[in-house]
Structure formats: C-alpha cells, structure tokens
C-alpha cells in the first residue's frame, strides 16, 4: 500500500521551490511557525540516515495560498510490491498543527485528514514546537521501521497461503456481509480478484485477494481511507480467520 496525497479541497500540487516562496509569518511569544521547507528537510535528513541508499520520491501540495502544506514521501525498500511512506502537514495560519504520519500505508489529504498505519503524531505551533517536532520525527522513524518489518512478515505469509478462485469469491462475500466492504467496493474486489489490474497479483493466493481489497478501498469517502485500510488489515489478520487452513488449496 503506497502513500496517498489527495488534493480535492482547493489544494494544488507544487514543487519544493514553491514551498520556499510562501512567506513565513512572524513568531510571537505564544506562536512558533515552522517553515514548510524546514519540515521537509528534517524529515528527508532522518530518512536518509535511517534508510541509507534508499530512493524516495516526494509529492507536495499547498492550500489557502500556501498557508496549508501537505506532503507525502514514498520509499521503496527491499521489495517491489510493498514500500513505506511518510506524510507531513503544516500551516502558517494556525488552522493545522504540525502532523507526521508513517507506515506501510499513509493518507494525507487537504481536507485535513492525516493518518498512518504505523504512527501518527501532531504538535501545535507553540513555544518549543521545533524541538518537539524534531523529537517526534526521530522517534516516529524508529517506530516505523519496526512496523515495516512486521508488515513484511505478514505479507510474506499471505503469499505463501494458496487460495482458489471460488474461495476468494466466498471471502469477498463474507466481507460484504460483515460490512468490511460496501456493495460498490465489493464489485471492485470481485473484478480485481477475477482479473487483477496488475499481473503480479494473478497468482491465486491470499496476498492477491488482499490486493483486490485494497484496490476496492480506493472507492469511498476520502477521509475514511485509513479506516477502510485498517478494517481490511484486521479482516486478513489471523484473528480475522481469512489466513486459515480451510482457505488453503490442497
């Protein structure tokens, strides 16, 4: 699951130079603005130290004439189908606290939503904000690595569990019955399971079915993206009874 930056509430995609052109408001006794560019540089520096040699790609968005900032960095680690993402948000008009989210899946939207499957933290622009934000990002990066390792193990397990086509249909039906998928998402999941959009998911196993769910999760209310993702993850966890001996093709 990749990082997701959505701009549908007036925001526009920009580059790093555009971030630097936005005027920084003056600091006061109770308000400590943090430059958008400083937040990106700090995060990028920590990523390079935690993941040396790893390539990453940024997406930036501005809203309210630059007063609100949103950004997502996608990292490709040691597998092609599963990476890690970092999301940031910030504001110069006191409308948003500084936000940092990280994990195998993050969602950052200009409707103010910011979520991560590993860690999500926020800090208001008050006294000592920069020191706290630095600590927040340093700690978050360490926690994210542990989360990534856990997710990688779970996805490897999914790839090892075979599932025939009819059993996949049954699982999607079960998800519909329990409200894990909406009818619209269920139709997408059936289609993706029957004929995957990406050839790497043509193999019949639990991981391919999981991908059908995450593709279906792209359909629905933007602000509910992470809730849907979490619901899918729980549904496919061992307690969810999807990865279970009865689903294995013999």
Explained architecture:
This protein folds into 2 domains: 4-146, no CATH class; 158-247. Helix content is 40%, strand content 19%. With 250 residues, the chain is an alpha+beta fold. Strand 5 and strand 6 (98-103) form a beta hairpin. The longest helix has 32 residues, at 129-160. It contains 7 helices and 9 strands, in the order E-E-H-H-E-E-E-E-E-E-E-H-H-H-H-H. The strands form 2 sheets. A 6-stranded antiparallel beta sheet has the order 2-3-4-5-6-9. Strands 1-7-8 form a 3-stranded mixed beta sheet, with no helix packed on it.
| Whole-angstrom Rg | 20 Å
Number of helices: 7
Q: What does the overall shape look like?
A: elongated
**Which range does the strand content fall in?**
15-25%
Helix content class: 40-55%
Order of helices and strands: EEHHEEEEEEEHHHHH
Distance between the termini: 29 Å
- Main beta-sheet annotation: 6 strands, antiparallel
Count of distinct strands: 9
- Poorly predicted regions: 110-114
Q: Identify the strand order in the major beta sheet.
A: 2-3-4-5-6-9
Mean pLDDT: 81
- List the domain count as a whole number: 2
Judged by helices, strands and strand pairing, the structural class is alpha+beta
């Amino acid at each position: 699951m990749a990082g997701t930056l959505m701009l549908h509430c007036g925001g526009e995609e920009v580059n790093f130079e555009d971030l630097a052109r936005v005027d920084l408001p003056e600091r006061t006794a109770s308000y400590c603005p943090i430059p958008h560019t400083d937040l990106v540089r700090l995060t990028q520096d920590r990523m390079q130290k935690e993941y040396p040699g790893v390539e990453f790609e940024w997406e930036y968005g501005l809203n309210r004439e630059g007063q609100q900032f949103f950004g997502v960095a996608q990292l490709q680690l040691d597998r092609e189908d599963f990476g890690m993402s970092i999301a940031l948000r910030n504001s110069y008009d006191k409308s948003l606290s500084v936000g940092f989210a990280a994990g195998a899946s993050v969602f950052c939207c200009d409707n103010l939503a910011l979520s991560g499957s590993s860690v999500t933290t926020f800090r208001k622009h008050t006294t000592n904000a920069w020191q706290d934000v630095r600590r927040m990002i340093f700690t978050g990066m360490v926690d994210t690595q542990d989360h990534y390792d856990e997710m990688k193990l779970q996805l490897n397990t999914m790839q090892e569990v075979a599932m025939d086509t009819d059993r996949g249909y049954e699982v999607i039906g079960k998800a519909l019955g329990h409200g894990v998928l909406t009818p619209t998402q269920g139709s997408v999941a059936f289609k993706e399971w029957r004929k995957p959009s990406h050839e790497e998911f043509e193999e019949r196993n639990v991981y391919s079915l999981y991908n059908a769910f995450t593709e279906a999760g792209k359909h629905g209310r933007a602000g509910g993206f992470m809730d849907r993702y979490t619901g899918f993850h729980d549904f496919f966890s061992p307690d969810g009874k999807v990865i279970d001996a009865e689903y294995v093709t013999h």
